[in-house]
Amino acid sequence: MNILLVYAHPEAQSLNGSLKSFAVKHLEAAGHQVQVSDLYAMKWKAALDGDDRTDRQAEARFNPVWDSQQAFAQGTQSKDIALEQEKLRWADTVILQFPLWWFSMPAILKGWVERVYAYGFAYGVGEHSNTHWGDRYGEGSLAGKRAMLLVTAGGWESHYSPRGINGPIDDILFPIHHGILYYPGFEVLPPFVAYRTDRFDAAHFPALCAELAHRLDTLHNTAPLPFRKQNFGDYEIPQLTLREDIAPGRSGFAIHQK
Amino acid sequence: MNILLVYAHPEAQSLNGSLKSFAVKHLEAAGHQVQVSDLYAMKWKAALDGDDRTDRQAEARFNPVWDSQQAFAQGTQSKDIALEQEKLRWADTVILQFPLWWFSMPAILKGWVERVYAYGFAYGVGEHSNTHWGDRYGEGSLAGKRAMLLVTAGGWESHYSPRGINGPIDDILFPIHHGILYYPGFEVLPPFVAYRTDRFDAAHFPALCAELAHRLDTLHNTAPLPFRKQNFGDYEIPQLTLREDIAPGRSGFAIHQK
Question: What is the pLDDT at residue B13?
């Protein structure tokens, strides 16, 4: 299949760089087509602003939503944005690879999401009515594709465990899994997370690669996270709260999975 | 008191721009000293990389943690980073103002955190032992200061309610409140969040300003979020899991508040 790896680490000679090279070789050896968006190497522009629309009047007030909509609809997006959208259309599976910095993705990758996820492409898609609140959360332009996070964390696994001080890793990643990947339609696979990478011992690299290889070999048949679709009866519309009889009395991120 | 407003929106003529101007005027009228870091206007460099250290050997392998430590210790940080650290030292209270984009802060502000939060300044501070896991989560260089988020969200308040499809706003903001602000020592005030701002009606602006004014007038005596300190007995060290007899059987972000 076609696999897009979006990669965000500033140093090629790093654990992340080594994992990226391993992943690309492993996937290609298995017969997949692979494209890599190496954001640091591409000097990706992180900040979303008025320059992202090529036909904007200099004196006009910039509205991130409206200008994105206009530029996407009229084909006047900045070229780097359009190229990344084309890669997303091409891909069957997308992997976002990054070190966890301050409990989220690096700024350069966040800026990739903000700029590439145009209105009309990743949001603002489909009918908005009292029975259908846009094609999102289970529907959308990227439906039918799969996505997975490949994350390194400096801290220990126990620090990210259900009672760990950083918060559970599943909750830390929920805004990305659910809010960035599931939102425009991706099926989201469980993440691959390597812990304690600040003191990573090179002797453990082969074992880590073996674990990763297993996940890469099973991208097509790994069960996705069972998020609930928005427009198929589980949620009240337009409030978008979970129906009272589903997970009654509970709240939090976990209720949005079956 | 001294107040630093770190502001991340690309358009001055926006709701965010108007709220920022209102906040600055209101705080100054109350006798406070205010500095604003307007990240878009400053053309803040979002991506953390080897250029953040002025004395790095070009051919050397870049290690985000190690190079940050060296540059901070030796006074060879990029000047823009050192200036922001100086503002943080000066401030009694810090406000981070931003639109919620894809369920987190804009890339340009995330990049401010990544670059300004140097090793030795915001992390890697204090003794690491089996009884004290660094000065963090309740201790650290920024202890004694207060911080508050000022956030605008396009979606409805119900979408961010305890059972709302986006997840509860308190959980969405936890990685920022706890992981970015409480971590280096800030006392974190409850956030000020304005919802449904994509269709904001200018007629509601005075009421929104009145709400914000109340929060600005009570910055000094608003009770902070009651996060648990790391090194004072609530957590096992070095696992950093919450002691079994505290919030027994529970897990998730909420257990880290008293």
Answer: 94
Q: Which residues of B touch A117 (CB under 8 A)?
A: 102
More confident residue, B244 or B202: B244
CB–CB contact B111 A114 (8 Å): no
DSSP assignment of B129-187, as one string?
SSS-B-S-SS-STTTT-EEEEEEE-SS-GGGGSTTBTT--HHHHHHHHIIIIIITTT-E
Q: Does the predicted TM-score (pTM) go above 0.90?
A: yes
The answer to the question of residue B157 being in a domain is yes
Cβ <8 Å between A107 and B117 = no
Instruction: Report yes or no on A230 lying in a domain.
Output: no
Kindly state the tokens that stand for A159: 């620090």
Residues in chain A closer than 8 A to B107 (CB atoms): 46-48, 107-108, 110-111, 114
Q: Are A166 and B254 in contact (CB under 8 A)?
A: no
Q: What pLDDT score was predicted for residue B24?
A: 98
Number of domains, chain B: 1
Whether the complex's predicted ipTM is more than 0.90 is answered with: yes
Q: How far apart are CA A77 and CA A113, in angstroms?
A: 15
Calpha distance A24→A26 (Å, rounded): 5
Q: Is the pLDDT of residue A200 over 90?
A: no
Q: Select the residue from B11, B52, B163, B257 to test the A interface by mutation, using most A Cβ atoms within 10 A.
A: B163
Q: Which domain holds residue A207?
A: 2-223
